[in-house]
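So, who can interpret the following?
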Amino acid sequence: MFGRTDFAAVLVLLSLAVLPGCGGEQAGAAGTGVTPEVRVSKSSPPARVVAASAPAGGVFVHPGTPLTLSDLKTLKAYVDQGRQPWKSAYDMLARDGRAQPTYGMAGPFAKVSRAPDVNLWPWRNDMMAVWNLSRMWYFTGNDNYAKKAREILLAWATTQ
């Protein structure tokens, strides 16, 4: 379905849309029409992003991406070793209803806004589910988590 590096790249790109206040208002680099690049690692091919700003021809380093691939590898190793507090945090994640392949979506809705609050919390819950399911997929290797995250994203992306 997805390679782990490909899925990490998807998470980086998703975080541009999911993390509030991290771009999305501008198209291109400072109105120049230049589409900045996002790289997951130095060896990964660049992905083009419209909802971000960077110096013309520069590489955009997202300030709000919470975990790198290196971070995920370290966390997985700690969880697999049973190290604390990482193992107990993983156990909490695994018990979260938004981290289950059986998660029942709160949306999608054609309109989401924050002021006034229109379907904001259903959207946030579903995006948190995508984040949780993505991490569970990485930690367990169980494709059902990735399939559910994809299902949620596609449902929201195709609702008009």
